[in-house]
Amino acid sequence: ILGSVQKKLPLMALSTTMAESFKELDTESSLGKALEMGCCIQSSLAKILAEFEIALEHDVLQPLNKLSEEELPIILKRKKTLQKLISDWNTIKSRLNQAAKSSSNSAGTGAGPGASSAANKLEILKEEEEEVKRKVEQCKDEYMADLYHFSTKEDSYASYFIKLLEIQAQYHRQSLGSLDSALVELKESHSQSEPSFTADTPMAGYYGVPLEMHLKSLGREIALPIEACVMMLLASGMREEVGSTPDIPATLSPKMQPLTYLFSSPHPQGRALKSYLRELPQPLMTFELYNEWVKVASLKDVDSRIQSLRDTCSRLPRESYNNLRYLVKFLAKLAEHQEVNKMTPSNIAIVLGPNLLWSQQSTEDPMQLDLASVSSIQVVSVVEALIQNADTLFPGEVDFNVSGMFMPPENRRLGEAAP
What we know:
419 residues, mainly alpha, Phosphatidylinositol 3-kinase, Chain A, 19 helices, elongated, SH3 domain-binding protein 1, coiled coil, GTPase activator activity, phosphoprotein
């Protein structure tokens, strides 16, 4: 019985699907291990649920069904019969009273056929009344006996509902216990299989991951790809001539070179930064504040625009604010060397603006996505204003090597090309 019930459960179907999926994966990979363990826990939960349903049926539902389908109907039927007999008795008693009055009137007028007929009718009604009364008393006794019998078993009936809660509690305890143990084991397995980050760790696995999740998983304040790209740019400078460098997707492939190689090689660090920002599930400046940023762009008064920029920045989530501050301070530093690298605040905003802010509608309808709609004038204007007013909006110096893990091979100015 247990097996047949278990097979019909959606949890078992989910377990089967997971089992088929992880067969196609490397069993040593984190995803393969997660699917394999997920398959086992779903099967275990299905068994616990099947045991719960069987116990519920046997210990609660069947006794309560017997009560509702056999014992209670007998009592209710007896009650209905008693009510009908009482109604009949009341009717006969009414007729008897009327007959008694008629007989009394006939007796007052003297003897005759009418008086004799009334007397006979009265006697018949008296006999009927006695018979119905006897039936009422008998049915009432039987009804009271049924109620007494039911009351003696009332505690046992109440115990079925206690049993229901006990079975439910046991089911949830077992399910929670299985889930807790599976979670501990899965997290341990995942943490063991997930390598700790070093300077030789590839960055490809951090692209397309929500910012909050990325920062939490690595215990960082600034996203690794942002800090890595900034530090590489600080070390090598940002050159305009990047056409001869390898295409960015190659640097993000599973065989991507480690950071130490990227750090010292003339790879397109700027394009890597743009790619990371664009692949975030939510732009660094957030979907929620998109309209607010656009409103800022429409402000003509400089002071009003700066104040509005400050207010909107303060509404960013902490993670987004810290990374935007870090990046904008770097871009402002980059713009200081615009005579050499040609990277004015306007040029930088045109290059990076569409990757820092875009509307949610553009992601929901990919067919409508085009460069003109993403690189809106408002977005470019806002990002340019952020760079131009970086020191006002984000006072204080920024240690770009915030994690302390990067050691530039040489200190060149941002405007200088690598030899």
